[in-house]
Amino acid sequence: MGKSDAIGKELMRNNMYFADAFNAGLFGGEALINPKDLDDVEPAEIELKDSEMGSDEFWAKYRDVLKKALIKTDGKNYFVLLGVENQTEIHTAMPLRSLLYDTLRYTKQAEDVAAEYRQQRKEGHSPKMTKAEFLSGWKYTDKLEPVITLVIYYGTDEWDGAKSLHDMFSEDVDEKILECVPDYKINLIEPNKIEDFDKFQTDFGKLLEAIRYKDDETELTKIFTGMTAIDKLIADAISYYVDERCSKMLNQWKEAKWV
Fold first, then answer.
1. Cβ contacts of residue 61 below 8 Å, gap of 6+?
2. Contact criterion met (CB below 8 Å) for 45 and 58
3. What is the reported pLDDT for 258?
4. Which contacts qualify for 239-245: CB closer than 8 Å, 24 or more apart?
5. pLDDT band at 248, cuts 50/70/90?
């Protein structure tokens, strides 16, 4: 694991920064996700080959971070799976990568349901199912938990890679064809595109703001002037993603302290 991967994963393992990234990056600053309602989930996305066809091979893809969130809104409680992919460099095929992760997670949910029904039959408690439900391993009343993947880009260059599955097709493809192909758009945090950093409620917003203005020392000074405390993890991330001079800048202020 490279230093960039390690820093990004450590940031997103922190429930406060994880929730802040989603609330500010996707929900306009609305606190839909409470850090206290987040639970870590094994990030491996595994696809098993069909053993009935004579193969028991499998392969795995690993997300950076995956958590389950209990969201409370409109008087309802429900679970959502939230995944994060950290990018220091532009990934030109990110829609395909994110789509694969989400598809595998949805498939796992369905396979877990089918496995539970098989276990019930083995124990002599066969569930009541229609023929269609039995063949599918999925009742009409079964529901998937939504999966949302957020791509956090720590670079300063404009993200000029694909932002949707349709972006990866040739421009020559007829619109009549594209209308029949479901699109898949990535959820992307791009510091250079953020207009309101006040939507962030933690120092994670300061990190993204520093990345945006990494080449403007005047703006960087404004960002940190007056701060009485900053998380050491954020300070280390600023030092790595922005410039080591930022650490020296922080240390120059006598009132600054690690929290």
1. 44, 45, 46, 100, 101, 104
2. no
3. 46
4. 240/3, 240/4, 240/7, 241/4, 241/7, 241/88, 241/154, 241/207, 241/210, 241/211, 241/214, 242/210, 242/211, 242/214, 243/214
5. low
Lookup: tokens for 223: 């960002």
How far does the chain reach from its first CA to its final CA, in angstroms?
26
Total residue length of the chain: 259
As a 3-state breakdown, the chain gives helix, strand, coil percent values, each rounded to 5, of 45, 20, 40
Q: How is residue 252 written in tokens?
A: 């120059």
pLDDT digits (tens, 9 = 90+) for 165-212: 999 999 999 999 999 999 999 999 999 999 999 999 999 999 999 999
Give the 3-state secondary structure of residue 70: strand
Structure tokens at 249: 């800048």
Share of the chain above pLDDT 90, in %: 68
Q: State the average pLDDT for the chain.
A: 88
* Separation CA 90–CA 221 (nearest Å): 27
- Amino acid identity at 192: N
| Residue 167 CB-density burial (10 A; 0-12 exposed, 13-18 middle, 19+ buried) | middle
Contacts of 171 (CB under 8 A, 6+ apart): none
Q: Which of 157, 244, 234, 245 is nearest to 200 (CA)?
A: 234
The amino acid at 5: D
Output the pLDDT for position 14.
96
